[in-house]
Design goal:
The chain contains eight helices and no strands. By secondary structure, the protein is mainly α. It has two domains: 112 residues, no CATH class; 35 residues, no CATH class. The longest helix has 21 residues. The radius of gyration is 25 Å and the shape is extended.
Length: 168
Amino acid sequence: MARSRESLLIDDIAARLWNDRAQYDADPEATETNLARLVEYFGKTTALTDIDHAKAKKMVALRRGHRVSRRGKLTKEQKDALPLISNATVNRSTIAVLRRLFSFAKDEGARFDAEPKWEELLLPEPEERVRELQEDESRRSITPCGPITSPSSSSSGPAACGRRSALC
């Protein structure tokens, strides 16, 4: 059973989250878009307590079918040829935002009987790729600048080097 002094309607929780925290995110426009997408999908009058694992899973399935967006006028064929959004985008723009709404409501005192199983909703993402420098890239980035004398010397040091090297 959900207990909270505040409204548990998804639209109300999203508005409170926005006013208290989300508007200060690094990319508030993206957060606002993601919150609006969830509110539109579930409906403004849906209580967060009514969103269980099955409903969250349907939202993830719908979001997986979305395509990346491009600016400008595109024909239907061009839009249909765009790739689907990545699993990472689904995880960050849907699952993480919905989870954040649940966490915010819990911070306000709400309790949930049927909260989604977050780890089961997360889609697999590829491991981060480690890029190694090629031989010539390595040499170029470590080109020495020559001896560095005192900071007052105008003929040596990083400014005199003219190269963007880690050693300058």
